[in-house]
Amino acid sequence: MTDNKMAGTTERLNNLGHLSAGVGHHVINAFSAIVSNAELLRLKTPLPQVVDPASLADTIVRTALEASTVARRLIDYTRPVTSIDSDDQAPIPSIVALDRLAEDFVGEQLEYGPPGIEWITDLGSVPPIRGHSNQLRAMLGHLIGNAFEAMPQQEGTIWISTSTDARGWVVLELRDNGTGMENEIMVRAVEPFFSSKHGHLGVGLSIANGIWRRHRGTLSLRSQPGEGTVLRLCVEPYQGS
């Protein structure tokens, strides 16, 4: 296998791992909803008048179908993946300066990214975190790719900043002036295989969220139609061994 093909396979397998975690959480939540609604149906005591048994049954069926669809799309996603050598080892965590990593990433985008994007940075010095720099770069790539997709003609502005919050946690914030999202779409934005854009798989934000979760970070977003989207990522800094 050539080096380029090996690198592509490794990247896809890494993405698959992060995506699988998102699918796992989605399916677990779906089963929880199914079980709780089924428990209500099998109660021997009469159901409250506000609870319609037919509606509960519809919820069970719909939730099960949605979960099976997500699992089926994960299977479809894995089909182009080929195996790599069994002795390939997982990367060893290192100490990562998130502000410097973001600076390097923006520099690469200025050189190789879409010419219609204006970058505004406020990369304050932040404590290092423990993690995998390559995975974090991939995460930024997915987040920025999502911002590109929200911009008509890939023209607009992206703001990126690093800081610390009141707890002393490291904060990475990305903001764009793209089309933004309705609340109904925003609440499902990190759901695997959910996309409001025709022809898109809807995996980028889910993969990015999976990478960040594995770094023990939290991700939140705010968005309004016509006002762009703000992504806020927080993580506890490295405290030393």
Could you walk me through the main structural features you see in this protein, from its secondary elements to its overall organization?
- The structure is a single chain.
- With 241 residues, the chain is α+β, with helices and mostly antiparallel strands.
- The protein folds into two domains: 3-78; 94-235, Heat Shock Protein 90, CATH 3.30.565.
- It is 46% helix and 17% strand.
- The longest helix is centred in the first third of the chain and has 39 residues, at 3-41.
- The two termini are 38 Å apart.
Question: Short description, anyone?
Answer:
The protein is an alpha+beta fold and 241 residues long. The chain is 46% helix and 17% strand.
Give the second-level CATH assignment, the architecture of the largest domain: 2-Layer Sandwich
Binned strand content: 15-25%
Average of pLDDT: 77
Main CATH class of the largest domain: Alpha Beta
Question: What series of H and E elements makes up the topology?
Answer: HHEHEEHEEHHEE
What would CATH call the homologous superfamily of the largest domain?
A: Histidine kinase-like ATPase, C-terminal domain
Tell me the CATH topology of the largest domain: Heat Shock Protein 90
Q: What's the end-to-end separation, in Å? A: 38 Å
Helix content: 40-55%
Number of domains: 2
What kind of sheet is the major sheet?
A: 5 strands, mixed
Determine Rg (CA atoms, Å). 21 Å
